[in-house]
Design a protein that fits this description.
Blueprint (H helix, E strand, L loop, with lengths): L1 E7 L10 E6 L4 E7 L6 H20 L4 H10 L18 H18 L3 H9 L3
Parallel strand pairs: 1-3
Antiparallel strand pairs: 2-3
Helix pairs in contact: 1-3
Length: 126
């Protein structure tokens, strides 16, 4: 297996997200694309990338198809105070997303990153 984490301009994401994952099963490659931010540089990329990595691996483990995740994400719109598709209880990968978010928060705390400032920077990408 090969895992690629790369930064891209936010406008180049497939939809309005700061991180996106896709498997290439033929090559056994997981590619994670992280939106470039102006906050913490490598640490922000690490946090988003690790979140996407964990989410992708847990989805594969739970047999949640990438196509199902993509279908949900690409058609989802903010509502009821929710700003991320994975936070929506109807998301097919909701529990995987929440677990990945918890790990992301733990790493942020260890790195001394202010979570509220980090979230504000990500929200500015939209």
């Amino acid at each position: 297996m090969k895992i690629i984490i790369e930064t891209i301009e936010h406008k180049d994401q497939r939809y309005d997200t700061c991180g996106d994952w896709q498997w290439n099963d033929e090559m056994d490659v997981l590619t994670i694309k992280v939106s470039q931010t102006n906050l913490y540089d490598h640490e922000t990329i690490l946090l988003i990338g690790v979140h996407e990595l964990i989410e992708a691996l847990l989805c594969r483990r739970s047999f949640t198809a990438e196509a199902e995740v993509d279908r949900f994400d690409l058609n989802w719109h903010p509502h009821n105070g929710l700003t991320e598709p994975g936070d929506d209880p109807d998301a097919p990968y909701h529990s995987e997303h929440l677990f990945a978010s918890n790990i992301e928060r733990l790493i942020a705390a260890r790195l001394g990153i202010n979570w509220q400032q980090y979230e504000r920077e990500i929200e500015r990408l939209a």
